[in-house]
Structure formats: C-alpha cells, structure tokens
Amino acid sequence: MEKGTIKVKAGLAEMLKGGVIMDVTTPEQAKIAEEAGAVSVMGLEKIPADIRTAGGVARMTDPQILQKIMEAVSIPVMAKARIGHFGEAQILQAIGIDYIDESEVLTPADERFHINKWDFKVPFVCGATNLGEALRRIGEGAAMVRTKGEPGTGDVVHAVTHLRAINDDITRIANLPREELMTVAKELGAPYELVVYVHDHKKLPVVNFSAGGISTPADAAMIMQLGAEGVFVGSGIFKSENPMKMAQAIVEATTHFNNPDVVARVSRGLGSPMQGTVCSGLDEQQMLSARGW
Amino acid sequence: MCRIGVLALQGSFREHVQALTKCAVHAYEVRLPDQLKAADGLIVPGGESTVIDKLIKKYGFKAHLDHFFRAGKPMMGTCAGMIMLAGKVLGQDIGWGYINLTVERNAYGRQIDSFEQDIDLNLNCRKGQDFKGIFIRAPKIVKVGTDVQILGMLGKEAVLVRQNHVVACSFHPELCRDLRIHQYFVQMIKKNKRES
Q1: Annotated catalytic, B172?
Q2: Helix/strand/coil (H, E, C) string of chain B?
C-alpha cells in the first residue's frame, strides 16, 4: 500500500473539479458551506477581506479552530500555510488537514524559496499568475494550482488576467516545434519536462482552479468558461448579504457554467454581493498576488 | 453506435468521457435530467457525494434515474458514484438503492490515508488479474447483499461489484490508463442494447 503518491495527491484535486471551495472561519460557517454544496472548505482565522483591513502579520490558523472545522463537516478541509513556511505545513500535516494552500494571502515567511512539497504526504495547492510560476510550483511538488486573482477585493479582473495569461502561454507552447521547448523552459524559468508535458497535452499537468475576487454566480460562470476547472470563493460568500443563498447560487453556476438560463435563474434575488475594493485602486504594497517567486 | 452518458454535475466526469472515447463509443456529459433520454448507459463519476446528491435533488433527477434503472439500462458508479448507487449509506440519507450494498463514506480515513494498491480483478470469470486501484478518501463496502457478484477484491474486501446491470467500485479506474473496467462496462451496454 502506497500513501501520499502524486497520483493520490493530484487525484483528490481531480475529484474537486467542477466544484466550489469556500473560505470559512468557524465550524458554523463550514456547515453552511457544506449544506450549500461546497466541495471543500478552506479554514481560516480571518477571510482575506478582513486580513486586508486588519494589517499586521497574517499566519497559519490556530490548529484548534481547524480541528473543530474538520469535525463539523464530512467534505475535505484545506488550510493555508505561509509561503516557504514548512514549519506551519508540518503542523497542518500533523493534524491531518486534507490539502495545504501555500498562500500569498498570508505574510510570506521566505523571500526566495517555497516549501519543498515533495517532503509531504499531504497534497499542496499553490497560486500562480503565469505559466512559469505554475510549473515551478508543480516542479516543487504542488498537486493543484490556482490562478491568483486579487484576494479579498471582490474584483474579478486579476483572476481573468492571470487565467488568460496561463491559457495563452499553453496555447502558444502547444503549437511550437519541439526544438524550441528548452529555450521556452529557460525563458519561463520552468522545468523542461513540465514544458514538454504542456506541449504534448495542451494543458497543465495538474488541476487548475481560479481564485481571488470571484463573488457572484456570473463571475464563476465566466471564469469556468475561460477554462478554470473549479473555483475558490473567499470573501465573496460570508461578506455577502445572504451567504447561504449566494453560496448555493455560485455552486449551481459553477456546474451549469455553460447554460446562461440556469445562471440567470440562480442569479435572481440574491441580495447584495460583497462590497469589495477595485483592484486598480490598490498600490503595489497592497497587491497580494505579486507575492510568490 | 452506443451512447453513454456521464453525470457531469461535479467530479471526474472528463476522465470518464476520455476513457469511454478510447473504447470507441460516443460519450457525453449529462447535466440536466432530459439529457438522460439519449443514453444507453450511464456513469456516475467520483467527486464529492454530498455535492452530487444536492444537485441531483435540486434538479429533479431522481424520477428520471429511477426510470433509467427500471428500463434495465446499465449504470456504473466509481467512488462517490458507488455511494450514489448504493442501497444504504451508513449514517446518511443518500443512496438511490440500485445495488444491494451497504457502504461507509471516507471509511479508509482522510486524504493523508489515501492510497494506491493493486487489486485482484475477476472480470469475465478470469481470475488472477491485477489492476492499479487508486483509493482517494474512498468509501468502503461494508456489506455485500444477495445477488451481488464480486468482481474485484482488495485483500479480503470487495471493491468492485455487480448486480444485474449495475456496476460499482470504491476506487478510480478513470484515473489510470488501464481501460479494462470501462471496456467491461461498454460490453455490458452493447449486449443489453442487442438484447432489448
């Protein structure tokens, strides 16, 4: 019996496809998310919108809170570790968390290196703004990627930009002659074998979700049509007027992303979505998606 | 040509469609109950059973599925799909009752305990075949009912079973390149189509 193989790590992400992963801060919120049809929950002390306002150093969530969330629901539970903070990741693995998000939403613990994710049995998801970054994370052992939007803003623009950037690069590489791939690998700063994989399969080697700024059913339907394989919704649910209704509507829009009649029906009468912050109004210091190297 | 629907509410439906396409049949995604009508067989994929269950109920699938089942059209469920097809799910009110099994969700543990192991396959009365079993937060078959044939074992546990026109397994044949289980299911559908 082999545990913690890349097949079972990446396999769980395959099972989450077409689903919505929701940020929660309490067992009660986790239950609402599960009841609404979340495929998994991300346990946090504060949701990204509140991390932005609070300032200070954002760290891993208290394991006690995470364990209570794990007891409250039967779906997989994810949690965030700081970029490069393998100590936090070890704790998360020790309490049996199902997926670790090495996340730019928290304050980075290492300015040069990410965690060596091959050291762990628990799978990792990492953020990326472009193909090179995605392939570097996969090279380090990530079993799932999420394209970074700008977390906690409710503004979907960066999620769109980064997903398009990755897809454009994949299309370009898929159409290149093989002899150009080593130079592409050098330019992207990505492992050659993974560039070859992208060339041969016209896709990333692992599942790619979209995250950051998705806050309505329409956002989810659009991002799925752009090629995301599922969505993370952070502040968009519990910062909206009616979290249960919003959560259910985003779940249905993610499944029926290609069916505007369904998306229109579930979009009606949801109350206000989160108020949000316009990304173009943020200065460089406030941009979380720029973290990660 | 055979047309096989893959329930595409959530989960590993794309991998099933790809595997079926390699078996040279027409596979398509089913997201609304009406789309079941054209199918000669149905696969319920892996995913999160709680999510699949909710969307099934919300979109009024159950009566259409019952009709499909009663018409004797073959169905196959993998992992979460097996939970959906089962007669009884311990502690939970899900399961459509199409195969006489009692199953327990996440019975092998959390993700950290997910594993790969070869299983003993017994398809078409040929014993002694190995198949790479990929078990992810897998359900366990805790009781095999009467009239249920065991087609795959993991040690002493049944992991691949069949009752009449319904096949279920607790692992993910759609995640490996080995097409034997999909081919077996396709043969069932072809035979059923010829005879009806």
Answers
A1: yes
A2: CCEEEEECCCCCHHHHHHHHHHCCCEEEEECCHHHHCCCCEEEECCCCHHHHHHHHHHCCCHHHHHHHHHCCCCEEEECHHHHHHEEEECCECCCCCCEEEEEECCCCCCHHHCEEEEEEEEECCEEEEEEEEEECCCCEEEEECCCCEEEEEECCEEEEEEECCEEEECCCHHHCCCCHHHHHHHHHHHHHHHHC
Domain hosting residue B85, numbered range: 3-195
Tokens representing residue A16 in the block:
């989450």
If pLDDT is split at 50, 70 and 90, which confidence band does A285 have? confident
A193-237: per-residue pLDDT in tens?
999 999 999 999 999 999 999 999 999 999 999 999 999 998 899
CA distance A70 to chain B (A): 10
Distance (Å) from the C-alpha of residue A77 to the closest C-alpha of chain B?
Answer: 9
For residue B193, the distance in angstroms to the closest alpha carbon of chain A comes to 30
Domain count, chain B: 1
Window 240-269 of A: residues touching B by CB (8 A cutoff) are 251-252, 255-256, 259
Beta bridge partners, A211, equal A148
Q: State the ipTM, two decimals.
A: 0.95
CA distance B159 to B175: 16
Categorize the per-residue pLDDT at B76 as very low, low, confident or very high, splitting at 50, 70 and 90: very high
pLDDT, tens digit, 9 for 90 and up, residues A154-205: 899 999 999 999 999 999 999 999 999 999 999 999 999 999 999 999 999 9
Residues on chain B touching A5 (C-beta within 8 angstroms): 115-116
**Least CA distance to B115: which residue of chain A?**
A3
Question: With a threshold of 0.90, does the pTM exceed it?
Answer: yes
* A90: enclosing H helix or E strand: helix A86-94
The whole-angstrom distance between residue A259's C-alpha and the CA centroid of its chain comes to 24
Nearest to A15 among B32, B48, B54 (CB): B48
Domain of residue B28, CATH code: 3.40.50.880
